[in-house]
Design goal:
Keywords: Lipid transport, Lipid-binding, Transport. With 234 residues, the chain is mostly beta strands. It is built from three helices and 15 strands. It is globular and about 50 Å long.
Amino acid sequence: MDLSKVVLPTFILEPRSFLDKLSDSYYHVDILSNAVQEDDAFTRMKSVVKWYLSGFYKKPKGLKKPYNPILGETFRCCWLHPNGTKTFYIAEQVSHHPPVSAFYVTNRQEGFAISASILAKSKFYGNSTSAILDGVAVLTLLPRGENYTLTIPYAHCKGILMGTLSMELGGKVYVECEKTGYRTELEFKLKVNQLICYLGGGKLVSSDVLVAHLMRGGFVVGGMFTYSNSHVLY
């Protein structure tokens, strides 16, 4: 079932637009300033992946769905960084059926820009639902002339009708730079079994396992494995 065609009660809606919600992924975008300054391509890729994962750090209070933007709606904001520079974000709803959101993030002084168009889809499975952001974002490190393409994991929400309401990330994604030949493949693994401690309420949890492989020319040159808030780099 596609939830975009279902009228939802207001108590499960977050009082802001989906365009606003998308900006949550860029609260730590200043990490890219370090990536631009790195001379080694391998280290730049690791810095980009570090920034990519930081986008999932900000967690909302409770689990609620943002409002669907209307056609032509825009949202803009900026972040002020300790070094005095500003990162600007602007988003627009460019299509209503299907719902497509486009956004652009830039800090010219620090030398990076990000652009993307996202098709928001959802699937309902009875007691759970998945929010799928179909699309590719492109990060450009301007002084390097490098484009990094990125995909986005889906959000899986459990306990909608009964049990503990919780959300985790799932799916396989990648970060790739064609110019340097480096590609990082990440897999967010959903919890297989989740103990239901009580009925009702809400809880936001992260995936138990995140596996990442950093490759070049088809060979693994680095990676990361995380489990229960610990991590191993190799």
